[in-house]
Amino acid sequence: MDQRSGRRKTKNYAMPSFPSMATANGRNIGQMADAIDRVSCAIVGAGQAGARAAIAMRNAGFETSIGLFGDEDLLPYERPQLSKEFLLADATEPALIKKRQEWRDLDIAVSLSIAVRRVEADTRQLVLANGKTIGFDQVLIATGTKPRRLAALETTDIPVHYLRTAADSLALRRSLRKDARIAIVGGGVIGLEVAAAAAQRGAMVTVVEAASSLLARALPCPIAELVEARHRAAGVAFVYGTTVTGTQQGAVCLSNGNTLAADAVVVGIGVEPEVEAVCGLGIADADGIRVDPQGRTALPFAFAAGDVAVQYSPWHGRWMRIETWANANAQAEVAARVIAGGEASHNQAPWFWSDQHDLNLQVVGDALGSETVLRGDPEPHKAVMVALREGRVVGGVTLNAPREMAGLRRLVRSRPHLAPEVLADPTTDLRKLVA
User: What is the CATH number of domain 358-433?
Assistant: First the structure.
């Protein structure tokens, strides 16, 4: 950094000569990989974590070559919008993390539209879908997850949508027509965000949930009930305790014997880690890739970050994947700094937000805990709840109360022992409970 001007000095990175990217939006640049034989650090996956890691490596002073490899035909883009505002917009492409020239200015070789089929440990090579091999010194796996598919809907005459990419979101948007009958399988965050967008576009929406309530693995019942009530007020219907068994003549068949007329189906029943490319490394299983707080795997040259990574959460008391935008960014930055030769450790409490109708829902840590405390009396569209385990704060939820979240995040990060009556008092300033 130039201390006099405050601007970053221009660096001459030790990079090979790459061909120019073909278009401003990043399409048709898969041939970038054809010009690369070796990179110092290969990043497999050009999603949220992969892109943020590449940028963070440069910011940390990593001056040798970086290759970012993705199988989509767009430059890396922000993912949260796909189930929210992008479904309501007219844009044909999502907001990019960096524009084409910005990636060039960072001397990061972005190769798109081509998948990495295999990462080899003995030769330290990537094997691409076209058979080309690219050597590396270090590798960061940021392949993310893929939607869990519903076998009962693999053969059907009704359009079935899964949501992972910008192309998926565009296809779904076309189905969300006024008065279209939309069946959403799964009452989790993604399903409810799509339900809100579909209702706003004038579609008739029914959510089919196998459990007896919404968001059972993420939210305490009082908050979930407020969310459900807001959806119902917008015209969204719910069917609980049943699953989808197939389709017939333009209708979804349910396990309770009923049918549900549908012009399109959206499936949001969870995700699975994308680990096919690293199966031969011995660092992945069905849950994902286990990492330490620095993002290291069991192999000294291999790191992982983002939704594919399995990390220990002291707030939940177990190993788990934390599938949030905030975690992908934070974990990627830590891994990048370590790869660049620095010191860093990922210790942020899990945090995510969800916008549904006029509700802003934010969750930090483990919002279920073993005891939950409401702060004051909840209103129809506003509530705050703190979660405890053995008297220690481990999580919290705000509904249309974003100012409370700053204090909650500080509490959850510190995990203090606090009396429930102190937390329940709405006049207590949460920010002042942590020294």
Answer: 3.30.390.30
| H or E segment to which residue 311 belongs | strand 309-313
Q: For position 200, what pLDDT does the model report? A: 97
Q: Where in the chain is the domain with CATH 3.30.390.30?
A: 358-433
94-99, long-range: CB < 8 A, 24+ apart: 94/166, 94/169, 96/25, 96/26, 97/48, 97/51, 97/52, 97/55, 98/51, 98/55, 99/24, 99/75
pLDDT tier for residue 357 given thresholds of 50, 70 and 90: very high
- For 122-150, the pLDDT digits (tens) are 999 999 999 999 999 999 999 999 999 99
Q: Give the pLDDT confidence of 369-387 residue by residue, as tens digits.
A: 889 999 988 888 999 999 9
Collapse the DSSP code of 69 into the 3-class scheme (helix H, G, I; strand E, B; otherwise coil) and give the result: strand
Strands (DSSP E) along 107-173, which ranges? 108-111, 116-120, 125-128, 133-141, 145-147, 160-161
Fold entry, domain 30-146+272-339: FAD/NAD(P)-binding domain (3.50.50)
Is domain 149-269 annotated with CATH 3.50.50.60?
Answer: yes
CA dist 163 and 116 (Å) reads: 21
Region 21-31 average pLDDT: 41
* CA 35 to chain CA mean position, Å: 31
| Tokens 């690219």 found at | 134
